[in-house]
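Table S2 (text version). Query chain:
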Amino acid sequence: MPESHIKLKKSAAYLSFWVGIGLFIVKVFAYFLTGSSAIFADALESVVHVLATAMALYSIILSTKPPDESHLYGHGNIEYFSAGVEGFFILLAAVSIIYTSVVKIFSGFEIQDLDYGTVLIAFAGFTNLFLGFFLVKRGEKTDSLALVADGKHVLTDSFTSFGVVTGLVLVLITGYKIIDPIVAIIVGFNIIFTGYKLIRESIGGLMNETDQKLLSRIVEILIENRKDHWIDIHQLRFWKSAEKVFIDFHLTLPYYFTIRESHEEEEKIESEIQKSIPTAQVKLHIDYCTDSLCKYCKYQECKVRKDGFREETVWDKKKLIGEALTLKAEEHKTLSL
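Corresponding structure-token output:
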């Protein structure tokens, strides 16, 4: 990873952590000032924000460490774990918010000084709005799931604050205090949705779930740079670890290509992929052609072919992630069972 990306990731994580602590203090002060359930809900989410941001900061510091003997592929997967922990914290906060608000509805409550509290929460909301967009943009720029997850959480915190402000303004206008815990419950359910999405994304990353957009981009690059002597590409696979993308596939070349020529093809392919995916690392398994592949081969310079080209092979996602052209129909059927 470029040193500049490491610095950008760490500086953004530190900024999120310290801003989170500052806004938590502001919201706690607003809660003790007003006694509002909605403000309590917002403050509780800020507790989660500080804990989750601390986890994100740790994961970013760890993920930027180079590979070592115990982690040959690096430490990038910690960012998926961090996003999952953040999602769990969010769900925990949501349940606490909903429970506390329901209890207040049935047991009674008092709120005061809502005008001052509303101003404080509005300030926190706008601060988090700008911070959240900044973190998401910085995370996308540096391919950091932890920063993107933290940014989305901060944006959720911002929307929560704006929802709370709306509820408090309604209480001030109408005088109906019951609006306050109802708004808190609505906020709680919204937070549950955000937590679920983060956990879902975390599990997908840890399980190496296929990123369909990235797969399409890799296939597109290979098709755009297809050479006549690339007789077949099959068993395309890839997985992500933080910003790194590990790609491997089988490439069938003429059997008389030397090891040096085959290695040069691998270097050319990796170079083309890295133009679009700079952090990609490509490893090829080189297969050699047989006479049965002549009918698929467009390499007119071949001097030893036994058959002319007569069968076009369409390269698409299904083909490139599938098996080699040499498999017979019976073998395809066996593999699908």
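Notes on Table S2: Confidence is low (pLDDT under 50) at residues 327-337. The first strand starts at residue 232 and ends at 241.
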